[in-house]
């Protein structure tokens, strides 16, 4: 545990960044260390106790700070990032054209009348229609009124927490994308933190390990209200099979739970036995919300465009409509996705755009397979990489922050330590396949040199 005292907020920024560089030493603070920030100038507003419960910073800015600290110490380092899952390849031309046209239209009276201004909080109707056509019409009954276009999946996850309100029992896969746990803490679902187990209290951690094929024992979540389930999973790369999805849906319906199904990487699935949307599964409309994103399909991580599906059949315990409340929340907390980004979304779902997205995703999938092969040849057990852009490497139970530091100091390659995704992730390191090909080839050479077993 470490605490900091400073008199100005600008100093605070410096202290935070200097603290992160400690990750490069043996006595580095772990992600779960508690940070107490005290400043001399005070308002009369008490700190949100939920914020005070958070351990360390949000994982990805922390990784970025460590990368920058490493570069400061080693200015000649040619850093390659296989860390944060951020797309690297340019947005395909047909999609850029769609955006350019959408932007140009805003400069004309007729175009501005058509798509300018605030617009619908749920998204432009043609985009909602096309999302249904491309992702849902073939195998599900989802219709356009159940699609809510947004500025991305992470933002929707936080707004869902707002809709459910505080004090819920939340279950997560362990390991999982850290936004589920952190937004649960911020929204008041947890009652404390157990230093021994490195787990927040009142959150159910469902262990996903090679031994259970990365599909958890759902019984652990029997008392949960909300289950976050990500498939293909970040970070393990495991995609749930149809039978596993059916088990999840049946379990949630039996126990009256709502599943927030994160399908941000569904486009990467190649196993025909794994559904690309949870609504392929019978019974899912009464228990599942699905969150999706253009981020990893079309390179929209900075542009921001996604969508959430809330079926009409999904009801709260009093029979009221979840879709109604979601619409109410979105109308209050969100002003609609950027009309230029929506122009890009429409183009992405055209025949040409769709083909270009398949090519881009194919490129990242090839990267993932190259990384997997490299580590297998080096003698490691490796998971993921087939249905997802992440490679999950088993480092034989070693402290994952230590491995992360070793990889960074020996090869100037940034990865993500498995423990950042939950206590069960320790012992593993996640490699992201979002990388230019020449950089990936260099990274592979460096890894082969330093990590032969
Ligand atoms: C770094 C399972 C990446 N700053 O872009 P969005 O908001 O539509 O989607 C975010 C998202 C949603 N669901 C899952 C994800 O893995 C992600 C993105 N995760 C990663 O490296 O794990 C980017 C992280 C970004 C963030 O915090 O989201």
Automatic annotation (TrEMBL):
Gene3D superfamilies: Aspartate Aminotransferase, domain 1, Type I PLP-dependent aspartate aminotransferase-like (Major domain)
Family in the record: Belongs to the class-I pyridoxal-phosphate-dependent aminotransferase family. LL-diaminopimelate aminotransferase subfamily.
PROSITE patterns xrefs: AA_TRANSFER_CLASS_1 (PS00105)
InterPro entries, A to Z: Aminotransferase_I/II_large, DapL/ALD1, NHTrfase_class1_PyrdxlP-BS, PyrdxlP-dep_Trfase, PyrdxlP-dep_Trfase_major, PyrdxlP-dep_Trfase_small
Name of the protein in its database record: Aminotransferase class I/classII large domain-containing protein
Biased composition (Basic and acidic residues): 24-34
Residue ranges that the Swiss-Prot or TrEMBL entry lists as coiled coil: none
Pfam families in alphabetical order: Aminotran_1_2
Keywords: Aminotransferase, Pyridoxal phosphate, Transferase
Entry-linked NCBIfam families: DAPAT_plant
Positions of transmembrane segments: none
Domain Aminotransferase class I/classII large: 110-447
Biological process annotations from GO: systemic acquired resistance, salicylic acid mediated signaling pathway
Lineage: Eukaryota, Viridiplantae, Chlorophyta, Mamiellophyceae, Mamiellales
Disordered: region residues: 1-34
One GO MF term attached to the UniProt entry: transaminase activity
Cofactor field: pyridoxal 5'-phosphate
Biased composition (Low complexity): 1-22
């Amino acid at each position: 545990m470490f605490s900091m005292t400073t008199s100005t907020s600008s100093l605070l920024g410096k202290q935070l960044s200097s603290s992160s560089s400690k990750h490069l030493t043996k006595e580095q603070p772990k992600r779960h260390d508690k940070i107490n920030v005290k400043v001399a100038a005070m308002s009369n507003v008490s700190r949100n106790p939920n914020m005070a419960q958070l351990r360390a910073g949000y994982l990805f800015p922390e990784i970025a700070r460590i990368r920058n600290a490493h570069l400061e110490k080693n200015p000649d380092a040619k850093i390659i990032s296989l860390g944060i899952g951020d797309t690297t390849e340019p947005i395909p031309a047909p999609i850029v054209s769609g955006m350019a046209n959408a932007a140009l239209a805003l400069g004309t009276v007729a175009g501005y009348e058509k798509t300018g201004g605030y617009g619908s909080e749920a998204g432009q109707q043609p985009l909602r229609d096309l999302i249904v056509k491309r992702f849902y019409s073939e195998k599900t009954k989802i219709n356009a009124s159940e699609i809510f276009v947004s500025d991305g999946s992470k933002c929707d996850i936080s707004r869902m927490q707002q809709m459910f309100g505080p004090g819920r029992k939340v279950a997560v896969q362990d390991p999982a994308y850290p936004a589920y746990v952190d937004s649960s803490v911020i929204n008041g679902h947890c009652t404390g933190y157990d230093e021994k187990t490195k787990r927040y209290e009142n959150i159910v951690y469902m262990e996903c390990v090679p031994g259970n094929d990365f599909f958890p024992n759902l019984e652990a979540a029997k008392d949960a209200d909300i289950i976050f389930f990500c498939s293909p999973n970040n970070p393990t790369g495991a995609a749930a099979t149809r039978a596993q999805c059916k088990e999840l849906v049946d379990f949630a319906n039996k126990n009256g739970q709502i599943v927030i199904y994160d399908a941000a990487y569904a486009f990467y699935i190649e196993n025909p036995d794994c559904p690309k949307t949870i609504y392929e599964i019978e019974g899912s409309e009464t228990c599942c919300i699905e969150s999706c994103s253009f981020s990893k399909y079309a390179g929209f991580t900075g542009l921001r465009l996604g969508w959430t599906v809330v079926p009409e059949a999904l009801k709260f315990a009093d029979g009221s409509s979840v879709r109604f409340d979601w619409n109410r929340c979105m109308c209050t907390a969100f002003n609609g996705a950027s009309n230029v980004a929506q122009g890009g979304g429409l183009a992405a779902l055209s025949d040409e755009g769709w083909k270009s997205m398949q090519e881009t995703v194919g490129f990242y999938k090839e990267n993932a397979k190259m990384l997997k092969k490299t580590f297998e040849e080096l003698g490691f057990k490796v998971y993921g990489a087939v249905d997802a852009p992440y490679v999950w490497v088993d480092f034989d139970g070693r402290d994952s922050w230590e491995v992360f530091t070793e990889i960074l100091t020996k090869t100037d390659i940034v990865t993500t330590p498995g423990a950042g995704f939950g206590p069960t992730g320790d012992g593993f390191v996640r490699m992201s396949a979002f990388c230019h090909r020449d950089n990936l080839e260099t990274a592979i050479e460096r890894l082969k040199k330093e990590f032969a077993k």
